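Try this one yourself first.
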Protein backbone atom coordinates (compact mmCIF):
# COMPACT_ATOMS: atom_id res chain seq x y z
CA UNK A 1 0.00 0.00 0.00
CA UNK A 2 1.23 3.48 -0.90
CA UNK A 3 -0.11 6.64 0.74
CA UNK A 4 0.31 9.93 -1.15
CA UNK A 5 -0.43 13.38 0.33
CA UNK A 6 0.24 16.54 -1.67
CA UNK A 7 -0.40 20.06 -0.40
CA UNK A 8 -3.01 18.94 2.11
CA UNK A 9 -4.88 16.48 -0.09
CA UNK A 10 -4.66 12.68 -0.20
CA UNK A 11 -4.24 11.21 -3.66
CA UNK A 12 -4.62 7.77 -5.16
CA UNK A 13 -1.06 8.07 -6.44
CA UNK A 14 -0.92 10.68 -9.21
CA UNK A 15 -0.64 14.34 -8.23
CA UNK A 16 -0.88 17.54 -10.24
CA UNK A 17 2.43 19.41 -10.27
CA UNK A 18 2.70 22.77 -11.99
CA UNK A 19 4.73 22.52 -15.20
CA UNK A 20 6.90 25.39 -13.95
CA UNK A 21 7.62 23.95 -10.50
CA UNK A 22 11.32 24.44 -9.75
CA UNK A 23 11.58 21.12 -7.96
CA UNK A 24 10.61 19.37 -11.19
CA UNK A 25 12.61 21.60 -13.52
CA UNK A 26 15.75 22.31 -11.48
CA UNK A 27 15.81 19.88 -8.55
CA UNK A 28 15.26 22.96 -6.41
CA UNK A 29 13.99 21.46 -3.19
CA UNK A 30 14.84 19.32 -0.19
CA UNK A 31 13.65 16.01 1.19
CA UNK A 32 13.93 13.57 4.06
CA UNK A 33 13.36 9.81 4.27
CA UNK A 34 12.25 8.48 7.64
CA UNK A 35 11.90 4.88 8.83
CA UNK A 36 8.49 4.09 10.33
CA UNK A 37 8.08 1.12 12.66
CA UNK A 38 4.76 0.16 14.21
CA UNK A 39 3.35 3.42 12.88
CA UNK A 40 5.99 5.45 14.74
CA UNK A 41 8.59 7.52 12.82
CA UNK A 42 12.16 7.02 14.02
CA UNK A 43 14.01 10.19 15.03
CA UNK A 44 11.52 12.40 13.21
CA UNK A 45 12.58 15.54 15.10
CA UNK A 46 16.15 15.14 13.83
CA UNK A 47 14.97 14.71 10.25
CA UNK A 48 12.69 17.74 10.38
CA UNK A 49 15.41 19.87 11.97
CA UNK A 50 17.87 18.91 9.22
CA UNK A 51 15.26 19.63 6.57
CA UNK A 52 14.55 23.02 8.11
CA UNK A 53 18.26 23.94 8.13
CA UNK A 54 18.61 22.96 4.47
CA UNK A 55 15.46 24.84 3.42
CA UNK A 56 16.53 27.98 5.26
CA UNK A 57 20.00 27.89 3.72
CA UNK A 58 18.47 27.54 0.26
CA UNK A 59 15.90 30.26 0.94
CA UNK A 60 12.89 27.93 0.64
CA UNK A 61 10.00 28.81 2.99
CA UNK A 62 9.59 26.06 5.57
CA UNK A 63 6.45 25.85 7.70
CA UNK A 64 7.32 23.21 10.29
CA UNK A 65 3.79 23.12 11.69
CA UNK A 66 2.40 22.39 8.23
CA UNK A 67 4.98 19.64 7.71
CA UNK A 68 4.24 18.08 11.10
CA UNK A 69 0.50 18.17 10.42
CA UNK A 70 1.00 16.52 7.04
CA UNK A 71 3.16 13.79 8.54
CA UNK A 72 0.60 13.14 11.27
CA UNK A 73 -2.18 12.83 8.69
CA UNK A 74 -0.19 10.40 6.56
CA UNK A 75 0.86 8.25 9.51
CA UNK A 76 -2.80 7.64 10.34
CA UNK A 77 -2.81 5.39 7.28
CA UNK A 78 0.18 3.34 8.45
CA UNK A 79 -0.56 -0.34 8.01
CA UNK A 80 2.73 -2.27 7.95
CA UNK A 81 5.34 -3.16 10.56
CA UNK A 82 7.96 -1.18 8.69
CA UNK A 83 7.53 1.63 6.17
CA UNK A 84 9.43 4.44 4.47
CA UNK A 85 8.10 7.97 4.95
CA UNK A 86 9.37 10.52 2.45
CA UNK A 87 8.86 14.26 2.90
CA UNK A 88 9.60 16.38 -0.18
CA UNK A 89 9.53 20.19 -0.25
CA UNK A 90 9.88 22.05 -3.55
CA UNK A 91 10.51 25.79 -3.90
CA UNK A 92 7.43 25.98 -6.13
CA UNK A 93 6.83 28.18 -9.16
CA UNK A 94 8.79 31.28 -10.13
CA UNK A 95 9.62 33.25 -13.24
CA UNK A 96 12.56 32.33 -15.43
CA UNK A 97 16.08 32.61 -14.02
CA UNK A 98 17.95 30.56 -11.48
CA UNK A 99 17.72 33.19 -8.73
CA UNK A 100 13.92 33.19 -8.62
CA UNK A 101 12.37 33.20 -5.17
CA UNK A 102 9.44 30.94 -5.94
CA UNK A 103 6.07 31.05 -4.27
CA UNK A 104 3.72 28.56 -2.61
CA UNK A 105 6.22 25.73 -1.96
CA UNK A 106 4.94 22.27 -2.80
CA UNK A 107 4.83 19.69 0.01
CA UNK A 108 4.62 16.02 -0.97
CA UNK A 109 4.53 13.27 1.68
CA UNK A 110 4.44 9.58 0.82
CA UNK A 111 4.36 6.39 2.89
CA UNK A 112 5.38 3.07 1.37
CA UNK A 113 6.02 -0.39 2.73
CA UNK A 114 9.69 -1.19 3.28
CA UNK A 115 10.94 -4.76 3.52
CA UNK A 116 12.37 -5.21 7.01
CA UNK A 117 14.54 -8.05 5.70
CA UNK A 118 16.75 -5.31 4.20
CA UNK A 119 17.93 -4.37 7.70
CA UNK A 120 21.52 -5.30 8.60
CA UNK A 121 22.17 -7.10 5.29
CA UNK A 122 25.81 -7.10 4.12
CA UNK A 123 26.68 -5.31 0.91
CA UNK A 124 29.39 -5.21 -1.72
CA UNK A 125 30.83 -1.83 -2.68
CA UNK A 126 32.65 -0.70 -5.78
CA UNK A 127 34.52 2.57 -6.04
CA UNK A 128 32.77 4.88 -8.49
CA UNK A 129 34.51 7.25 -10.86
CA UNK A 130 31.88 9.85 -9.88
CA UNK A 131 33.29 12.11 -7.14
CA UNK A 132 31.55 13.98 -4.34
CA UNK A 133 32.42 17.67 -4.52
CA UNK A 134 33.23 18.56 -0.92
CA UNK A 135 33.08 22.26 -1.82
CA UNK A 136 29.50 22.15 -3.16
CA UNK A 137 26.44 22.85 -0.98
CA UNK A 138 24.71 19.88 -2.64
CA UNK A 139 27.18 17.50 -0.97
CA UNK A 140 26.02 18.42 2.54
CA UNK A 141 22.34 19.28 1.96
CA UNK A 142 19.68 16.67 1.20
CA UNK A 143 18.39 18.28 -1.98
CA UNK A 144 16.40 16.95 -4.91
CA UNK A 145 19.54 17.28 -7.07
CA UNK A 146 20.68 13.65 -6.85
CA UNK A 147 22.15 13.11 -10.30
CA UNK A 148 25.70 12.36 -9.05
CA UNK A 149 24.37 9.62 -6.78
CA UNK A 150 22.15 8.24 -9.51
CA UNK A 151 25.08 8.04 -11.94
CA UNK A 152 27.34 6.43 -9.35
CA UNK A 153 24.72 3.81 -8.48
CA UNK A 154 24.12 3.01 -12.14
CA UNK A 155 27.84 2.77 -12.83
CA UNK A 156 28.38 -0.06 -10.32
CA UNK A 157 24.97 -1.75 -10.44
CA UNK A 158 26.09 -4.86 -12.32
CA UNK A 159 29.08 -5.48 -10.03
CA UNK A 160 28.09 -4.33 -6.55
CA UNK A 161 25.19 -3.48 -4.26
CA UNK A 162 26.20 0.16 -3.79
CA UNK A 163 28.80 2.66 -4.91
CA UNK A 164 31.65 4.02 -2.81
CA UNK A 165 32.18 7.67 -3.68
CA UNK A 166 35.44 9.51 -3.02
CA UNK A 167 35.72 13.28 -2.85
CA UNK A 168 37.72 15.45 -5.23
CA UNK A 169 40.83 15.03 -3.07
CA UNK A 170 40.58 11.24 -3.28
CA UNK A 171 39.45 10.62 0.30
CA UNK A 172 36.45 8.47 1.23
CA UNK A 173 33.16 10.38 1.26
CA UNK A 174 30.09 8.16 1.29
CA UNK A 175 27.84 5.93 -0.74
CA UNK A 176 25.08 7.71 -2.69
CA UNK A 177 22.62 6.89 0.12
CA UNK A 178 24.69 6.09 3.20
CA UNK A 179 27.51 7.20 5.47
CA UNK A 180 30.69 5.15 5.78
CA UNK A 181 32.23 3.94 9.05
CA UNK A 182 35.25 1.81 9.86
CA UNK A 183 36.32 0.03 13.02
CA UNK A 184 40.05 -0.19 13.72
CA UNK A 185 41.52 -1.45 16.99
CA UNK A 186 38.26 -0.69 18.78
CA UNK A 187 38.08 2.88 17.41
CA UNK A 188 35.03 4.08 15.48
CA UNK A 189 36.10 6.24 12.51
CA UNK A 190 34.03 8.12 9.93
CA UNK A 191 34.66 10.88 7.36
CA UNK A 192 34.31 14.43 8.69
CA UNK A 193 31.58 16.80 7.44
CA UNK A 194 34.09 18.70 5.27
CA UNK A 195 34.80 15.56 3.22
CA UNK A 196 31.75 15.93 0.98
CA UNK A 197 29.22 14.02 3.06
CA UNK A 198 25.64 14.49 4.08
CA UNK A 199 25.63 14.09 7.87
CA UNK A 200 23.09 11.32 8.33
CA UNK A 201 20.73 10.98 11.26
CA UNK A 202 21.89 7.41 12.00
CA UNK A 203 25.50 8.56 11.68
CA UNK A 204 24.86 11.19 14.34
CA UNK A 205 23.24 8.67 16.67
CA UNK A 206 26.20 6.33 16.48
CA UNK A 207 28.65 9.15 17.09
CA UNK A 208 26.68 10.16 20.17
CA UNK A 209 26.67 6.57 21.44
CA UNK A 210 30.38 5.94 20.79
CA UNK A 211 33.22 6.57 23.20
CA UNK A 212 35.49 9.20 21.62
CA UNK A 213 34.91 8.44 17.91
CA UNK A 214 37.35 9.75 15.31
CA UNK A 215 35.84 12.11 12.73
CA UNK A 216 38.41 12.98 10.06
CA UNK A 217 39.60 12.41 6.51
CA UNK A 218 39.68 8.68 5.69
CA UNK A 219 41.83 7.17 2.95
CA UNK A 220 40.61 4.34 0.74
CA UNK A 221 43.52 2.19 1.94
CA UNK A 222 42.21 2.37 5.50
CA UNK A 223 39.03 0.57 4.46
CA UNK A 224 41.01 -2.43 3.24
CA UNK A 225 43.00 -2.65 6.48
CA UNK A 226 40.12 -1.99 8.89
CA UNK A 227 38.68 -4.56 11.27
CA UNK A 228 35.23 -3.79 9.84
CA UNK A 229 33.61 -1.43 7.35
CA UNK A 230 29.91 -0.60 7.43
CA UNK A 231 27.31 1.80 6.10
CA UNK A 232 24.54 3.62 7.95
CA UNK A 233 21.33 5.23 6.79
CA UNK A 234 17.87 5.85 8.14
CA UNK A 235 16.13 2.88 6.53
CA UNK A 236 18.71 0.10 6.71
CA UNK A 237 20.36 1.33 9.94
CA UNK A 238 23.66 -0.62 9.83
CA UNK A 239 24.88 -2.51 6.77
CA UNK A 240 28.21 -4.42 6.98
CA UNK A 241 30.46 -4.15 3.92
CA UNK A 242 31.72 -7.55 2.80
CA UNK A 243 33.62 -6.59 -0.37
CA UNK A 244 35.13 -3.53 -2.04
CA UNK A 245 36.01 -3.79 -5.74
CA UNK A 246 35.55 -7.54 -5.44
CA UNK A 247 38.09 -7.89 -2.62
CA UNK A 248 36.72 -9.56 0.50
CA UNK A 249 37.11 -7.58 3.71
CA UNK A 250 37.58 -8.58 7.30
CA UNK A 251 34.19 -8.52 9.00
CA UNK A 252 34.58 -8.08 12.75
CA UNK A 253 31.37 -8.32 14.77
CA UNK A 254 29.15 -5.24 14.80
CA UNK A 255 26.79 -6.71 17.40
CA UNK A 256 27.60 -4.08 20.02
CA UNK A 257 26.83 -1.20 17.68
CA UNK A 258 23.68 -2.90 16.41
CA UNK A 259 22.52 -3.50 19.97
CA UNK A 260 23.01 0.15 20.94
CA UNK A 261 21.19 1.38 17.85
CA UNK A 262 18.33 -1.09 18.29
CA UNK A 263 17.84 -0.02 21.90
CA UNK A 264 17.63 3.59 20.75
CA UNK A 265 15.14 2.64 18.00
CA UNK A 266 13.02 0.61 20.42
CA UNK A 267 12.63 3.66 22.62
CA UNK A 268 11.15 5.46 19.62
CA UNK A 269 8.77 2.79 18.36
CA UNK A 270 8.41 0.25 21.17
CA UNK A 271 9.93 -2.55 19.10
CA UNK A 272 13.43 -3.86 18.50
CA UNK A 273 14.10 -3.69 14.73
CA UNK A 274 15.82 -7.07 14.86
CA UNK A 275 12.49 -8.67 15.68
CA UNK A 276 11.24 -7.69 12.22
CA UNK A 277 13.90 -9.51 10.20
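Now uncover the answer:
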Amino acid sequence: MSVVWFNGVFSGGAVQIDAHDRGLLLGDGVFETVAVMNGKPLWLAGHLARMQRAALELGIPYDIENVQAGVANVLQSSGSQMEALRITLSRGVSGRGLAGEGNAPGLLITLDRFEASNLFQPCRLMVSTIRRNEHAPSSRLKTLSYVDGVMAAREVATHADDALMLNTAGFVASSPIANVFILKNGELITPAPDQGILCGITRGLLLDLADRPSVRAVSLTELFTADAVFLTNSLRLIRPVSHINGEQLVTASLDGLKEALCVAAAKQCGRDPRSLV
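Discussion: The CA atoms of residues 259 and 274 lie 9 Å apart. The first strand starts at residue 2 and ends at 6.
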